[in-house]
From TrEMBL:
Catalytic activity as recorded in UniProt: (2R,3R)-2,3-dihydroxy-3-methylpentanoate + NADP(+) = (S)-2-ethyl-2-hydroxy-3-oxobutanoate + NADPH + H(+); (2R)-2,3-dihydroxy-3-methylbutanoate + NADP(+) = (2S)-2-acetolactate + NADPH + H(+)
Annotated gene: ilvC
EC number in record: 1.1.1.86
Protein name: Ketol-acid reductoisomerase (NADP(+))
Natural source organism: Streptomyces chengmaiensis
Biological function: Involved in the biosynthesis of branched-chain amino acids (BCAA). Catalyzes an alkyl-migration followed by a ketol-acid reduction of (S)-2-acetolactate (S2AL) to yield (R)-2,3-dihydroxy-isovalerate. In the isomerase reaction, S2AL is rearranged via a Mg-dependent methyl migration to produce 3-hydroxy-3-methyl-2-ketobutyrate (HMKB). In the reductase reaction, this 2-ketoacid undergoes a metal-dependent reduction by NADPH to yield (R)-2,3-dihydroxy-isovalerate.
Cofactor binding, per record: Binds 2 magnesium ions per subunit.
Amino acid sequence: MAELFYDDDADLSIIQNRKVAVIGYGSQGHAHALSLRDSGVDVRVGLPEGSKSKAKAEEQGLRVVTPAEAAAEADVIMILVPDPIQAKVYEESIAPHLKDGDALFFGHGFNIRFGFIKAPAGVDVCMVAPKGPGHLVRRQYEEGRGVPCIAAVEQDASGNAFALALSYAKGIGGTRAGVIKTTFTEETETDLFGEQAVLCGGASALVKAGFETLVEAGYQPEIAYFECLHELKLIVDLMYEGGLEKMRWSVSETAEWGDYVTGPRVITDQTKAEMKKVLTEIQDGTFAKNWMDEYHGGLKKYNEYKTQDSEHLLETTGKELRKLMSWVDNEEA
Ligand code: NDP
Ligand code: MG
Ligand code: MG
């Protein structure tokens, strides 16, 4: 059974007695920096000269210095820049300023798990990862609530690294909702697998294949869009509230019967065998290596895939239909 921690299990004074640098001020960075400050923690934000985020952080009352200055001043350094550039920021601006007793924090385990960042032995290496987007993390904190977090320690140089991580999580509201203990390995591998096989990759491929099947059979794209994409949200909301059982309770018996007999014909043993291969390539570092090569090679294929899908009939149909849906927050991404 997973170990869970709440407000009473965490001592806020630990992080209040440290100096924290939040490197990056994007989705997660702004939420961490502002909520830590509001929890009485000494925070500075590290951003390079010319950063687009700098004005915003200053407007919100935070002190902004360069990443190197922030790392030099602080003894807890949270790295919240995009994963593919973390190793470079670490090498150039953080590593030269790390001292024994400092702590290096992450919001995702990617760079530690795959060895792109190697911290010196005298430094605690911790993760506090909210299980929700940064803007929700901040909003929930302001409303006196929190987003559940997962926390992990990769390297416990001080002997108190987990208590420090819990204290940090309390500072951003995480222990109000609950913190689950994990490891860098478990967090990174399950996160990558979930987004690839189920949440992003699996779901988009399922929606596209269903839409194409209907359109190729001569049905109207608008009808296919509603059936295969739009209604998915209604189904997922029910699953979120009460698992598969609540979803099946709410849909018709005909839909439920179709679910039982047809689902396994679409997601077959072969699909699951492929999922296992996907997981293996995550575990052995193949995915991470390929992604870093793609990223640092100029994102050529990434941009090709992006353009291909933005021109797909599913997307062009949806774009027009959503204009008619006043109830959908249809601001384009
Ligand atoms: P964002 O892309 O939202 O933010 C990036 C920030 O980093 C921006 O403020 C950007 O500044 C800044 N930045 C870019 N380059 C540098 C640099 N060289 N030095 C310092 N700052 C720089 O990142 P996320 O918040 O999405 O992700 C941060 C971490 O959190 C990642 O590890 C991610 O996996 C993890 N995470 C993210 C979640 C999310 O909700 N998005 C959820 C859970 C974990 P500028 O404005 O100048 O570009
Ligand atoms: Mg992820
Ligand atoms: Mg229907």
